[in-house]
Design a protein that fits this description.
Blueprint (H helix, E strand, L loop, with lengths): L1 E4 L5 H5 L8 E5 L2 E4 L8 E5 L2 E5 L5 H8 L4 H11 L16 H13 L5 H13 L7 H13 L3 H7 L2 H8 L5 H9 L6 H10 L11 H11 L8 H6 L14 H9 L3 H14 L5 H12 L2
Antiparallel strand pairs: 1-5, 2-3, 3-4, 4-5
Helix pairs in contact: 4-5, 4-8, 4-10, 5-6, 6-7, 9-10, 11-14
Length: 294
């Protein structure tokens, strides 16, 4: 067993909006078990301010990613600098930092386009990675074949991207060059590219623009801005902070206003849209975890 101190963390609240939950299952308060793919059966646990992992695949990188330590200083620094008022104090951006987990997260992000995450994406991930204990040429071919056989358009799109997603999971270069390469893939738009960047721990200077962020921006932040377009991002600058017209789209506006806390704002938006921010939001979250994530 390996443990780190993480007194700032609410594990369940942070795993719920993270794409890590596509291959982990909730087994009780502060406990998650890896349910498919490589290292199946390994566990995450949080108690008394300590995050621990056990089983195969357990590493300090895993704990740094899940605990949000990878971006904590920048996120909280920009929260203070921008004046953003957080709704969920223990919520962090739980991200994947190793190549295998980055690949799994990227697959889940591609699958999540215009579908129900808790039911469809988690089910597809179990189908695609059932019995796969390592990521290699044979397993990549098998995942692509399984995806191509599924009847929905999201897995069929994924089937064409499997090898590219694995190649980019090992990318160690500039995050904005990675965004440019992702946007060059068929079926990958700004929301998908930004979610991959955020939940694979590349940068928090992104705000994946989906219906959750749009509603949050309207109801909480008082913003009514359209989402970014792929052609615009590629034409001007794939780096949101440098884009000359970033104020014309929702992602750019969030990045311009909240800087390195933009990814945290988007994560709060997801939680807000699904469980609210009223006095019983924790109870609603627990019900959702028990119903859809167990």
């Amino acid at each position: 067993m390996l443990c780190v101190e993480a007194p700032w963390l609410w594990l369940d609240e942070s795993m719920y909006p993270s794409f890590l939950s596509s291959f982990y299952s909730y087994v009780g308060p502060g406990r998650w078990v890896r349910s498919t793919g490589p290292w199946r059966g390994s566990e995450l646990g949080y108690r008394d301010g300590r995050l621990c992992c056990s089983g195969p695949g357990c590493s300090l990188d895993l704990l740094r990613g899940v605990s949000g330590e990878w971006c904590l200083g920048e996120c909280l620094g920009w929260v203070r600098r921008s004046g953003y008022r957080r709704l969920y104090r223990g919520l962090v951006v739980s991200a994947a930092l190793g190549a295998v987990d980055r690949f799994l997260v990227s697959v889940a992000v591609v699958l999540s386009r215009r579908t129900r995450y808790a039911t469809n994406v988690r089910r597809w991930m179990h189908i695609l990675f059932n019995g796969i204990n390592a990521i290699d040429e044979d397993s990549l071919r098998l995942v692509a074949e399984r995806a191509a056989r599924l009847p929905s358009p999201q897995p069929r799109t994924l089937a064409r991207l499997v090898k590219d997603l694995w190649r980019l999971a090992s990318w160690e270069g500039d995050a904005w060059e990675l965004r440019r390469q992702l946007l060059g893939l068929p079926g990958v738009g700004p929301k998908t590219a930004d979610a991959i960047l955020l939940f694979t721990g590349r940068t928090t200077w992104v705000a994946p623009s989906d219906t959750n962020l749009a509603r949050f921006a309207r109801e909480v932040l008082g913003l009514e801005v359209r989402p970014p377009q792929k052609s615009t991002c590629l034409c001007y600058d794939p780096a949101c902070p440098r884009c000359a017209i970033r104020g014309s789209c929702l992602s750019g506006t969030i990045v311009g206003r909240y800087g390195g806390a933009a990814g945290l704002v988007q994560t709060e938006a997801y939680l807000y849209n699904h469980v609210g921010a009223g006095p019983r939001w924790r109870e609603e979250l627990r019900k959702r975890l028990e119903k859809h994530y167990s």
